[in-house]
Amino acid sequence: MTAKKNKKRKNRNINLQKVKTMKLAVMMLIILLAFAGLGARLYFLTRDNRNDYQKRILSHLGYNSKTLPFKRGSILDANGTILATSEKVYNVVLDCKVMLDDEKNEEPMLAALSECFGLDRTELSRYVKDNPASQYYVLKRRISYEERQVFEEYKKAYNEQAQEHNKNVSDSEKMGMINSGIWFEEEYIRRYPNNTLACDVIGFTGTDNNGQFGLEEYYNDVLNGTNGREYGYLNDDAILERTTVAAMDGYTIVTTIDANIQAIIEKYIRQFNDEHMNEHREGLGAYNIGFIAMNCNNGEILGMASYPDFDLNNPKDLSKYYTQEQIEQMQEGDGEDYYKTLNELWRNFCISDTYEPGSTAKAMTLATGIETGRIVGNETYECGGHLMVADHDIDCNIKAGHGTLDVSGSLEQSCNVAFMKMGEAIGVKNLVQFQRVFNIGLRTNIDLAGEARTAALVYSEDTMRAAELATASFGQGYNVTMIEMAAAFSSIINGGNYYEPHVVSKIVNSNGDTVKNIEPRVLKQTISSSTSEQMRQYLYATVAEGTGRTARPAGYAIGGKTGTAEMVPRDKTNYVVSFIGFAPADDPQIVVYCVIDRPNVADQPHASYATAIVKSVLTEVLPYLHISRTEEMTITEQEEADNLLENIVAGGNKEAGDGDGNEEGDNSDTGENEGGADESGDGQDHENPDDGAGKPSYVVDPNTGELVNPDTGEPAELNYSYEGGNGDDATPNEGDAQAPVEEGAAQ
To answer: What is the 3-class SS of 8-60, one letter each residue?
Structure first.
């Protein structure tokens, strides 16, 4: 019985074991099937979503792509001198996550930041504690390579010491390391090695690497390059690889500016400012001073400067011209006054501001008359001190009149009556037409940002009546820019070729290979070569015997014309004085043009202020250009030249050339009033201007450049207001072209 029970129990155990085995087998099968299903699912997921998962893997790895900045192209002068360049700098970046891979690293790394970069240790610790997962935090911007090297050397020395220490100590005693949690981000900043030199021409860049004003703005797309990038990706074997697309640096532009000529120009306009600062009114030596030196045979700008200037490396610094209190007042509210002042300071007076040219425009009037055949050169003109035009008397600049003058003498003594008669002979149609021929009223398209438009500031045939014709003939009633006048004058004396003025001669890449040559462009023929030759003779006589005498540098024969223009309103108070000339007289190579807007003196209307600057500039520039002296020098001139040379060598240049802006050199064209053409018709009776009998003729004093009576030696009595009999203020063009010169930034 017992054996039977045991047998049944044994069979039951065997069956139970079989059931367990079967259950286990089924369970294993289910598990295997589940794994097979999961495997299949994983396969299809990776096959169909491979790129997405690779990106997720990269993100979990903490990978970020890196921008590689381009280097903005340089700006060079004609001799290769660097005027503007981009310098690599570094931003100090902290990656807290990497730094805290080992907590021991925090102490030495924060100590290094504090010691090398002067960062506050407490602030650093607080930031790390509050942002342990931060991977990008800029601690300090735009440090130099030298500053970075200080850190790199500190890091190297510390890590070597730490590694040596850690060889023989337990883990708890090991020193932390300075790891890659501190790294340097590269970028470029713009540097101007010469600070204020050619600031109006060059312009500057903002924080966005885009140019503002001058060449920086005009050639912005040429100077800028394309950023590169360094990024990573997973290859077919799911291995992270890095790829770098290099940055494309910007092109470099080579200018026609000669830094030496530019420096000479700026030296003398700054000297004028220093001599006359606060002289008659509180403020600078003039509201604006502009100077252009131009190759008249190809349109290249050799030098262009204006004053006040500014530091290109710190263009928002107004402390040179204003007190801190004044600056703070300008910055109050929305800061409109502050930014207006800055923009006025940054604008280039030589291309952006307009003014009435005055008697320098007489060269265009005379050239027009000769070219049209309305003036043949054998005419004579009687000047009685005023001329009746359209029932109004328009005064000459010499109250008593010039007497009898021929064509050359009219230009030499800058007689307004003679030129009004020339204008009448030329006629409205011809005068307006040739203003356009000389590009007056049209932009020159010089390659600088900010050139003013003057189309609305000149006469048309419809707006030029008899009085406007009279005043326009001696440069009043319409506005121009300096670059307009320089380009037009160049065509008058170079044979009649009007060249488009330009500042850049070629564009090169970062390897120095030429990408583009910018060749001189002759846009048109303004006058014939024979007319041009005749004009050179007249303009030479104007300097040799006339009002431009004080502009002649010792030993050189030059030609040119002075100008004095009374500004609107015509109140005998504010004047623009100027001189435009060329050298040498027989073979012009360079045109120079100096304009002074309201000199800070008690007696403004004297072009001698401009001729003194021109003389000083040419005395240095002409020898520099290897233009030899052709004229005999007096003992006085030789002494002046020797003194100037000594001053140049000594670096003084305190009394170069005339140096004395107060010298009555040509007495505001010594006998010209390019001031407001004030017409008057009633009030006083005047002697018939055509009756020149008994009126004295005047000659130019060779020592002072003033017009004097040859019999008495007394200076001519001058009239700068053009007031007629009643003294009423009249505007020749009824406001159509009477925009005054815009005021400078700092007064």
So the answer is: HHHHHHHHHHHHHHHHHHHHHHHHHHHHHHHHHHHHHHHHHCHHHHHHHHHHH
